[in-house]
UniProtKB/TrEMBL annotation:
Belongs to the GPN-loop GTPase family. Keywords: ATP-binding, GTP-binding, Hydrolase, Nucleotide-binding. SUPFAM superfamilies: P-loop containing nucleoside triphosphate hydrolases (SSF52540). It comes from Streptomyces luteolifulvus. This is ATP-binding protein.
Length: 201
């Protein structure tokens, strides 16, 4: 997605807007990350957890969670002049995964948030993006009281493809979240460039 805007000299410069997904398991911090980094009031589609939902949503380890995203979160952040990211947070529960195909259309890449206390909950997101060849980084959300693991430990535990970045972050902190997004844009840019070169080579 590219738009034009005037620069200080009156000339036209290209403004680049990139679509990024923020994915991961239930209760891992997707809504928190989008809200922390967004420069606009984020759009949220959260609903209170219901008794009916308790039968299908595994809240083990996130007992204090009282709401859940039922469609998507949306936010925007300007990384630098002329480069903005549109963030789409995906719902984490299995029953909403049918929305992922629609949300992933046109995405440059994705952030897969991980919680080391419940690492297995991000396997579906990792598999989803690997199978569709969508570049992604794994961002380990460092929750208070959780055991700290290094990036290599997490990479091995998730059996990630060689070179897939793993970064530690605090989803509540804007600077930390922005650094994750910058890493993703850099990595996705390298991946897309390499694929383009392969296709013409």
């Amino acid at each position: 997605m590219v738009s034009e805007h005037s620069d200080a000299t009156g000339g036209e410069t290209a403004a680049l807007a990139l679509k990024i997904l923020v994915a991961g398991g239930f209760g891992v911090g997707k809504t928190t990350l989008v809200g922390a980094v967004s420069e606009i009031k984020p759009l949220r589609t959260e609903e209170l957890l219901s008794e009916a939902g308790e039968l299908v949503d595994d809240t083990d380890g996130v007992d204090q969670k009282v709401t859940t995203t039922v469609a998507m979160d949306f936010g925007r952040i300007t990384i630098r002049s002329g480069l903005s990211l549109y963030l789409f947070g995906t719902p984490g529960q299995d029953r909403f995964w049918f929305l992922w195909d629609e949300l992933s259309q046109g995405a440059l890449g994705a952030v897969v948030l991980a919680d080391t206390r419940r690492l297995e909950y991000c396997f579906p997101a990792v598999d989803y993006f690997e199978h569709r060849r969508i570049p992604f980084v794994v961002a380990v959300n460092c929750f208070a009281g959780a055991r700290t693991y290094g990036a290599q430990d997490v990479s091995r535990a998730l059996d990630l493809d060689r070179g897939t970045p793993v970064v530690l972050c605090d989803a509540r902190d804007r600077a930390s979240g922005k650094e994750v997004l910058i890493r993703l844009v850099e990595y996705a840019g390298r991946m897309h460039t390499a694929r383009l070169l392969d296709s013409v080579g």
